[in-house]
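Example record

One chain of 26 residues, shown exactly as stored in the release files.
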Amino acid sequence: MQMPNQKDWCRENKKILNVYNGILVI
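Predicted structure tokens for this chain:
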């Protein structure tokens, strides 16, 4: 599997964390 570049990975990671945190808040 190819690694995305750092910026894209960071942005995706933040998106995932936001979703995860949203689930935790609910």
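Notes: The mean pLDDT is 79.
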